[in-house]
């Protein structure tokens, strides 16, 4: 007759279970804020990358000659806003240049704009001045930036032409006005001119810097350095 062996199997005691739960709670409390911060940064970074890609695509079309005049529109309205890239052919541009006035970057300057690409911002993103957070601005009245080959007819329209100057690498002797600031919608302060950002919440802020000749650079606000860091 087989002899049963006595098995020495022990479970967790109540105290051990409580200790494990306490440890898990502590780890979750530490990890969750970091995860939330990572999610916010990822969302803003993705928007900044898409806007950077729109600028790059627009200036590439100009340099290739496919569309010698390209307009990037920042259209406010129903939250959160849209960015659209439009272009015209050489014939339309030549007709305007040979007319009484040079291109002014107004949508009404041409009747043959062709939409090349567009991007609707997500609900966590807003762009100060160019696409205000307030919904009180009517559709079609947003800012615009126009590029031409060699930068000859480079123009900034409405909000794009009224932004204040900012410096990079704490160099105020070389300021620029050509930028797009990408902010979190819950940020209490996002002012690139005064370098006033939501330091308490540490909300991520990105900036796309552009030149009349099509040089595009992306930056992120560095809270520790109190300056922009190239991405």
What does this structure look like?
With 231 residues, this protein is of the alpha+beta class. The protein has one domain. The chain is 27% helix and 29% strand. The protein has three helices and 14 strands. The protein has a five-stranded antiparallel sheet. The chain has a five-stranded antiparallel sheet with strand order 4-9-12-13-14, covered by helices on one side. The longest helix has 51 residues. The radius of gyration is 26 Å and the shape is elongated. About 3% of the residues have low confidence.
Question: Keywords for this structure?
Answer:
alpha+beta, 5-stranded antiparallel beta sheet, 231 residues, 14 strands
Topology diagram in text:
Elements lengths: L13 H51 L4 E7 L6 E7 L1 H8 L16 E7 L4 E2 L17 E5 L6 E3 L1 H4 L3 E3 L2 E6 L2 E6 L5 E2 L4 E2 L8 E5 L5 E7 L4 E4 L1
Antiparallel strand pairs: 1-2, 1-5, 2-3, 4-9, 5-6, 7-8, 9-12, 10-11, 12-13, 13-14
Strand content: 25-35%
Mean pLDDT: 84
Overall SS class: alpha+beta
Could you tell me the radius of gyration in angstroms? Answer: 26 Å
Number of strands: 14
Q: Can you write the helix and strand succession as a string?
A: HEEHEEEEHEEEEEEEE
Q: How would the global form be characterised?
A: elongated
Ranges where pLDDT stays below 50 over 5 or more residues in a row are 135-140
Q: List the strand order in the largest sheet.
A: 3-2-1-5-6
Q: How many DSSP helices?
A: 3
Helix content: 25-40%
Number of domains: 1
Main sheet specs: 5 strands, antiparallel
Q: What gap, in angstroms, lies between the N and C termini?
A: 76 Å
């Amino acid at each position: 007759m087989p002899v049963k062996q006595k098995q020495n199997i022990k479970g967790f005691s109540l105290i051990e279970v409580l200790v494990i739960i306490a440890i898990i709670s502590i780890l979750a409390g530490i990890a969750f804020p970091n995860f939330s911060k990572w999610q916010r940064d990822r969302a803003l970074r993705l928007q900044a990358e898409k806007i950077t890609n729109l600028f790059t695509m627009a200036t590439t079309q100009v340099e290739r000659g496919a569309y010698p005049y390209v307009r990037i529109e920042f259209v406010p309205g129903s939250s959160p806003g849209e960015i659209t890239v439009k272009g015209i052919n050489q014939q339309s541009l030549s007709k305007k240049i040979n007319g009484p006035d040079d291109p002014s970057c107004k949508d009404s300057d041409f009747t043959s704009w062709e939409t090349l690409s567009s991007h609707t911002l997500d609900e966590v993103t807003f762009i100060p001045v160019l696409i205000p957070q307030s919904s009180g601005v009517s559709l079609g009245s947003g800012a615009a930036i126009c590029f031409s080959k060699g930068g000859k007819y480079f123009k900034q329209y409405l909000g794009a032409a009224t932004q204040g100057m900012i410096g990079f690498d704490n160099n105020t002797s070389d300021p620029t006005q050509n930028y797009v600031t990408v902010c979190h919608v819950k940020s209490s302060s996002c002012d690139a001119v005064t370098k006033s950002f939501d330091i308490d919440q540490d909300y991520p802020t990105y900036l796309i810097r552009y030149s009349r000749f099509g040089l595009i650079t992306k930056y992120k606000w560095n809270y520790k350095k109190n300056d922009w860091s190239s991405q």
